[in-house]
Amino acid sequence: MKKLKTEELLEWDRSHLIHSMAAMGATRGIVFDSAEGVILRDTEGKEYIDSSAQMVNVNIGHGRKEVIEAIGEQLAKLQYTTTYWGFTNTATILCAKKLAEITPSGLKHFFFTSGGSEAVETAFKIARNYWHAKKPEKHKIISLYNSFHGVSFGTLSATSLGMGRLWKSYGPLVPGFLHIPSYYCYRCAFGLEYPGCRIKCADFLAETIENEGRESVAGFIAESVQGPMGMINPPPEYWPKVRQICSEMDVLLIADEVMSGFGRTGKLFAVEHWGVVPDIMTMAKGITSGYIPFGAVAINDEIYRELQSRQTPFSHGFTYSGHPVGAAAAIKDMEIIVGERLAENAARIGEYTLKRLQKDFLPIPCIGEVNGLGLMIGIEYVEDKKSKAIPKKVWEISQKIQDRALQDGLFLRVYGNRVTLSPPLIINQEQMDRILAILKPILAGIPEWF
Predict the structure, then answer these.
(1) Kind of pairing, strands 39-42 and 47-50?
(2) Among 281, 280, 183, 191, residue whose Cα is nearest residue 241
(3) For burial by CB atoms within 10 Å, which of 149, 193, 402, 413 has the most?
(4) Does residue 1 carry a pLDDT above 80?
């Protein structure tokens, strides 16, 4: 096959392809062509270290032949069957069994989807369906400010990150969704400081449920670690306190582990850091490391028994729910994550990286905070450390940071004024040092752009 020139491909791209989160016809001028491990290569042969695991989903790294072979073997055997109306297939059954072996205790019943938005959408419908026969007035869903749960209408209604940008062209949104302040300690909405705050953000959930009426609130959803906000991990008391509140106030707790699951934070699932078991848990991204679109929703025994007892169909589904090829990829992906102890590597490299950031990056005049859990790490730049002021030209500055990083061979993601590091979980210390060596002079030069 004739090798196509980069500019020819880019011209076709501008003519035919619509990109997410980009203006029509806009391209970055780069065409990725191959990848291996933590390295991406473009059509010009230039290499980039993937410091974000793309969409924080390529947990096992690029080019893993084991998953590619598992996909090929499944395609040769059975390409597709539906899971509607009680039909099933071998791969999807084995995937559910494998998933049940690694999820937190009590979450052993699964509905499969094609990705994260579908998983969260499903979680909302399950929560409302669960209450429908018991207490039909319970329908409201509470989520956090600065959260991201997806871009379908239900998930977008729970999402509040970049509300103006994500919402303004698509409203009105789905009714019955409320937002409360998040666990973002560095910019506490209550003007308090940890630990003297006594976790006011969690207490405010209880106040909101009470004010809205316990009889009207179906569920509370939060990312176990806020991802698109810029990798924000909660104070250690937050999730146990939220679990207690939801249990006492008869509200379903939904943990969004779409980004934080499958080893990303140093545990297989982030909620395990705090010994918390949610009622519903959403998963995607790392479940196949992006090799094939796939996602899942886990529900506890109580919800499963309630829905089962009704002896009525679960009136929800997607054409590709439980796709056998996705299931085969997920099985092999989970085997790699567990067998190679990638969660442990994420914990080890994450701890090393945070220490380096605190020692070498935090003294930089424009760096206000560094934080993270495992390989979900955020670096916040500010105009003034004392006031924590965000630069007025934040979007322009962040674009320049990303462009400069690309020039220097680093694929980097920046959310607002937070520079993030979330590489594949296979990364080693030497590779992380290369990332930091590229990043440090870029961040040190930020004040020139104020």
Answers:
(1) antiparallel
(2) 183
(3) 149
(4) no
Distance between CA 398 and CA 343 in Å, rounded? 30
Rounded CA-CA distance 10/422 in Å is: 28
pTM of this prediction? 0.96
The CATH code that applies to domain 31-60+341-449 is 3.90.1150.10
Separation of alpha carbons 59 and 257, rounded Å = 14
Dist CA 219 CA 233 (whole Å)? 21
Percent of the chain with pLDDT over 90: 89
Cα gap 165→397, rounded to integer Å: 18
pLDDT tens-place string over residues 115-152: 999 999 999 999 999 999 899 999 999 999 999 999 89
Q: What angle do CA 22, 23, 29 make, to 5 degrees?
A: 70
Cα gap 127→122, rounded to integer Å: 9
Tokens 């071998």 belong to residue = 90
Q: Would strands 39-42 and 252-256 be described as parallel, antiparallel, or unpaired?
A: unpaired
Check whether 166 has a pLDDT greater than 90: no
Sign of CA dihedral 323, 331, 271, 57: negative
Its CATH architecture, for the domain 66-339, is: 3-Layer(aba) Sandwich (3.40)
Instruction: Name the pairing type of β-strands 413-415 and 418-421.
Output: antiparallel
Which letter, b or e, does each residue of 305-333 get, where b requires 16 or more Cβ atoms within 10 Å of its Cβ?
A: eebeeeeeeeeebbebbbbbbbbbbbbbb
Q: Determine the Cα–Cα distance for residues 444 and 28; give it in Å rounded to an integer.
A: 24
Angstrom distance (rounded) from CA 162 to CA 149: 12
Tell me: the pLDDT tens digits for 5-62? 999 999 999 999 999 888 888 889 999 999 999 999 999 999 999 999 999 999 999 9
**Cis omega (within 30 of 0) for bond into 195:** yes
**Strand, helix or coil at 415?**
strand
- Domain ranges for the chain, please list them: 31-60+341-449, 66-339
By C-alpha distance, which of 252, 149, 231 is closest to 183? 231
Start-to-end CA distance of the chain, whole Å, equals 48
* Residue 330, H or E segment: helix 324-339
Query: Is-contact 391 373, C-beta < 8 A?
Result: no
- Report CA torsion sign: 344, 347, 352, 353: positive
Order of strands across the sheet that contains 32-36: 32-36, 39-42, 47-50, 410-411
Region 360-367 average pLDDT: 97
